[in-house]
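[Discussion] Sanity-checking designs against the backbone

I'm trying to build intuition for which residues belong where. Below is a structure token string of 121 positions. I'd appreciate it if someone posts a full sequence so I can compare it with mine line by line.
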């Protein structure tokens, strides 16, 4: 078994990406992920969405997620219920919960997404 080593990364080292099912300038940096650090149980991303950008509604079978809104305003859908989210809101999403997030504000919507485990589907 290969041991994962501890690392320090600067956010500038990881390029912005538009992952599948993300649209309109929904960009993320996969700061801690199997592909970037060799992590096995954690995916940690920072995302910034331009006005009107969104991720389409989706569900995870076993993943838990936490969204932490750092700046901006958007609309979060959780199992069909829509709620405005803004700076300092923290959203917990359990497995089996259909969800999406959309920037409905006037400026950038910036947030952290933490997911575990990373391999569920």
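Best answer:
Here's mine. Compare freely.
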């Amino acid at each position: 078994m290969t041991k994962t080593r501890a690392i320090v990364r600067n956010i500038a080292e990881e390029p912005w990406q538009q992952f599948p099912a993300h649209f309109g300038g929904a960009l993320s940096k996969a700061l801690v992920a199997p592909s970037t650090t060799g992590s096995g149980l954690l995916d940690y991303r920072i995302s910034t969405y331009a006005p009107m950008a969104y991720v389409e509604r989706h569900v995870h079978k076993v993943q838990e997620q936490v969204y932490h809104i750092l700046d901006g305003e958007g609309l979060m859908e959780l199992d069909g219920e829509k709620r405005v989210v803004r700076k300092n809101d923290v959203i917990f999403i359990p497995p089996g919960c259909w969800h999406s997030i959309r920037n409905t504000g006037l400026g950038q919507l910036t947030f952290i997404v933490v997911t575990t485990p990373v391999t569920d589907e």
